[in-house]
Amino acid sequence: MVLNRVGKALRIISDEDRKKIAVVIDGPTILPDFSLSNLKSLKKLLDKVGIVRTGKIITDTQISQRDSDILKAQGFHEEIVGSDVDIHVSIRALEMMNNEAIDIVAVGTADTNLFPILSQIKHKKSLAVITWEKDITPAIESIADMILTLDLLNK
User: Fold this and answer.
1) Is the confidence at residue 38, as pLDDT, over 60?
2) Which domain holds residue 23?
3) Eight-class DSSP state of 19
4) Domain tally for the chain?
5) What count of other Cβ atoms lies within 10 Å of the Cβ of residue 45?
6) Does 7 reside within a domain?
7) 26 assigned to some structural domain
8) CATH code assigned at 113
9) Cβ–Cβ < 8 Å for 68, 94
10) What does DSSP say about strands 76-80 and 51-59: parallel, antiparallel, or unpaired?
């Protein structure tokens, strides 16, 4: 029993040293080709960089109960918005940028219209972009601290 408490205390101490990550995913640009069953693999990949403190998938359509359960099991939350998903993604990403408890903002998108927001984030925090190989542009490469490609996770 004491050993269990010591192990938990060591995890807490070591977690404090790790980078804190906030993930915001643009559902309409990522989800059509990404199986949420691969979300666990994405989270493991992010865990190599730091510790995911918050994860949100923003979409304009209802997802199935099965997919909702997968999200919750990985510590993610869905946010269903009426329209203009990119505006909501931008707002959430900027909120995470201004959160002092977050070190890295990871934005999952294939929408090049979000480049100005990504640029703003880069000025204040580390920026990770989660996207498809085909959607990586020179502009994204120039500002992202890291790019996580989804292509490998879907195989």
Assistant:
1) yes
2) 19-149
3) P
4) 1
5) 16
6) no
7) yes
8) 3.40.50.1010
9) no
10) parallel
